[in-house]
C-alpha cells in the first residue's frame, strides 16, 4: 500500500460517522499536513541535487591529477616505456576518461534537475555534428564490424541551437546504438528538416539493428536511473542517466525525443529541434 | 627559460602540471591561494599563468583584477576550470584570459597550446 493510499484509508476510517462540517475540518488538516510534507520532500530533493553537483565537481579534481600523470608517462616525458608499460598506462588513461565522462554525466543531470542548464545558441550545420560524433566512435564501429551510414537531406538548412548540447544528445544515442547492436549489425545517423503546421524543425534519427526495446519500456528508459536489462546483450555499464539527460537537453531547446522499437527489431531514436520558419 | 605560474589549490593537480611543464623546459612556480598568486606574480612576472577559478580565499579571477590594477599582468593568462558555463567563459575573456579550458585538458593539447601562447 502506498503512503497516499494508507493516508486515504486512515482518513476514511477516522471520518466514519462524522458530520459534514467535521469531515471538512479533518480534510483541511490532512491537506495542510500533505502540503507540508511536499515542501519538506522538495527541500530534501534540492539538497540531494546540490550534493550530486558538489560531489561530481570534487571527483573531477583527483581524476585530473591521475589522468595528467598517466599522460605524462605515456608521452615519454619521464623516459621511454616498454610496450607492456604503455598498454598499462593507456588502460589507466581510458579508465580515467571513462570515469570522468560518467562524473560529468551526473553533474549535467544534477544541473538539469536544478534547472541550472542554459542554452548557448550558435548557427551550425547538423551534418558537421553527425560527422564529428561518428569519427569519435570510429574505432568502436570497426571493432564491432558494424555497417554505418550518415544521411543528411541536402536541403537541410543550418540550425540555431546549442551545438555542444546537441552533440551530447547525438553522442549518447549513438553510443547506445553501438553498445546494444551485436557485431555485424548496422547503425545510422539521419537528419532532415520538416515542416509541422506552425513551425519548422530539424528531425534527427539515430537507428540500429540491435536488440530493440519492448514497447512497455519506451517511457521508462527516459526516466532517471532506469536501465532495461532484460536483453540478450551484455549489460550497459552507464549511470542510467544518459537518456534522461538527452531528454532534458532536447526539451531545453523546445524539442521532443522518442523511440520506435520492439524487441529483436532494432531501435530508432528520434528527436526534434524547432527553429523559426525562414 | 619561460616562467609558468600554476595557480591551483589541489597539490595533486599542481604537482602533475609541474612535472609536465618542467619536463618540457619551463620554470614552474606554484601558488595555492589568491594572496600567494598575487605575491608570486608581482615579484616574478610569469610568461604564462594558469589559473584555477575556485581557490580557498576567493575567485581566481580576482588575481587578474589585482595584478591589472598594479600593471603587473602576466604575459599570458589562461583559466582552467571545472565548470563549462558560458557566464564564466565571458568573465574570463573580459578580464584578458587568452583561453578558458575545461579540466582535465589532455596533456598534448595543453603543451601544444602552451607553445602557441608563449610564442605569441
Describe the overall structure:
The complex is a heterodimer of chains A (278) and B (120). By secondary structure, chain A is of the alpha+beta class. Chain A has seven helices and seven strands; from the N terminus they run H-H-H-E-H-H-E-E-H-E-E-H-E-E. Chain A has helices at 3-15, 20-74, 83-113, 126-136, 138-143, 163-179, 242-252; strands spanning 122-124, 147-152, 159-161, 186-195, 200-208, 257-261, 267-275. In chain A, strands 2-4-5-7-6 form a five-stranded mixed beta sheet. Chain B starts with a strand and ends with a helix. Chain B is built from five helices and seven strands. Chain B has helices at 11-23, 34-43, 61-69, 86-94, 107-119; strands at 3-7, 27-31, 48-52, 54-55, 58-59, 76-81, 99-102. In chain B, helix 1 links the parallel strand 1 (3-7) and strand 2. Chain B has one domain (3-119): 3-Layer(aba) Sandwich (Rossmann fold), CATH 3.40.50.2300. The chains are: A alpha+beta (278), B alpha/beta (120).
Q: Characteristics of this structure?
A:
heterodimer, A: 278 residues, alpha+beta, two-stranded antiparallel ribbon, 7 helices, 16% strand, B: 120 residues, alpha/beta, five-stranded parallel beta sheet, two-stranded antiparallel sheet, 45% helix, globular
Structural class of chain A: alpha+beta
CATH superfamily of chain B: Response regulator
Percentage of helical residues of chain B? 40-55%
The mean pLDDT of chain B is 92
CATH class of chain B: Alpha Beta
Tell me what portion of residues of chain B adopts beta-strand conformation.
15-25%
Considering residues with a beta carbon less than 8 A from a beta carbon on another chain, report the largest interface and each chain's count: A-B, 19 and 20 residues
CATH topology name of chain B: Rossmann fold
The mean pLDDT of chain A is 87
Radius of gyration of chain B: 13 Å
CA gyration radius of chain A, whole angstroms: 24 Å
- Number of beta strands of chain A: 7
List the secondary-structure elements of chain A in sequence, H or E: HHHEHHEEHEEHEE
How much helical structure, as a percent, in the residues of chain A?
A: 40-55%
**Quaternary state, please?**
heterodimer
What structural class do helix, strand and pairing data of chain B support?
Answer: alpha/beta
Q: Count of helical segments of chain B?
A: 5
Low-confidence segments of chain B, given as residue ranges, are none
What is the global morphology of chain A? globular
Amino acid at each position: 500500500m502506498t503512503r497516499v493510499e494508507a493516508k486515504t484509508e486512515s482518513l476514511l476510517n477516522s471520518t466514519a460517522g462524522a458530520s459534514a462540517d467535521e469531515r471538512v475540518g479533518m480534510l483541511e488538516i490532512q491537506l495542510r499536513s500533505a502540503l507540508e510534507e511536499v515542501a519538506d520532500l522538495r527541500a530534501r530533493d534540492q539538497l540531494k541535487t546540490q550534493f550530486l553537483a558538489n560531489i561530481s565537481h570534487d571527483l573531477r579534481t583527483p581524476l585530473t591529477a591521475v589522468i595528467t600523470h598517466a599522460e605524462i608517462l605515456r608521452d615519454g616525458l619521464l623516459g621511454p616505456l616498454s610496450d607492456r608499460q604503455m598498454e598499462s598506462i593507456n588502460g589507466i588513461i581510458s579508465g580515467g576518461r571513462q570515469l570522468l565522462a560518467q562524473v560529468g554525466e551526473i553533474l549535467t543531470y544534477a544541473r538539469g534537475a536544478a534547472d541550472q542548464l542554459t542554452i548557448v545558441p550558435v548557427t551550425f550545420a547538423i551534418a558537421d555534428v553527425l560527422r564529428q560524433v561518428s569519427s569519435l566512435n570510429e574505432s568502436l564501429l570497426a571493432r564491432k564490424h558494424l555497417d554505418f551510414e550518415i544521411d543528411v537531406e541536402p536541403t537541410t538548412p543550418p540550425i540555431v541551437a546549442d551545438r555542444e548540447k546537441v552533440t551530447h544528445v547525438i553522442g549518447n544515442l549513438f553510443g547506445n546504438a553501438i553498445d546494444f547492436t551485436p557485431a555485424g549489425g548496422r547503425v545510422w545517423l539521419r537528419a532532415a528538416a520538416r515542416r509541422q503546421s506552425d513551425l519548422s524543425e530539424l528531425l534527427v534519427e539515430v537507428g540500429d539493428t540491435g536488440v530493440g526495446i519492448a514497447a512497455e519500456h519506451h517511457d521508462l528508459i527516459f526516466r532517471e536511473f532506469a536501465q532495461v536489462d532484460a536483453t540478450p546483450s551484455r549489460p550497459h555499464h552507464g549511470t542510467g542517466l544518459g537518456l534522461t539527460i538527452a531528454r532534458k537537453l532536447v526539451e531545453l531547446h523546445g524539442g521532443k525525443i522518442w523511440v520506435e522499437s520492439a524487441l529483436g527489431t532494432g531501435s530508432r531514436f528520434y528527436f526534434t529541434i524547432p527553429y523559426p520558419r525562414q | 627559460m619561460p616562467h609558468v605560474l600554476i595557480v591551483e589549490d589541489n597539490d595533486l593537480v599542481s604537482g602533475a602540471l609541474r612535472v609536465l611543464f618542467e619536463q618540457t623546459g619551463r620554470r614552474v612556480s606554484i601558488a595555492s591561494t589568491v594572496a600567494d598568486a598575487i605575491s608570486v606574480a608581482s615579484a616574478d612576472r610569469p610568461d604564462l599563468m594558469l589559473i584555477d577559478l575556485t581557490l580557498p580565499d576567493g575567485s581566481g579571477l580576482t588575481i587578474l583584477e589585482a595584478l591589472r590594477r598594479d600593471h603587473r599582468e602576466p604575459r599570458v593568462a589562461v583559466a582552467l576550470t571545472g565548470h563549462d558555463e558560458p557566464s564564466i567563459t565571458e568573465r574570463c575573456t573580459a578580464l584578458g584570459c587568452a583561453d578558458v579550458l575545461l579540466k582535465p585538458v589532455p596533456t598534448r593539447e595543453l603543451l601544444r597550446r602552451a607553445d602557441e601562447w608563449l610564442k605569441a
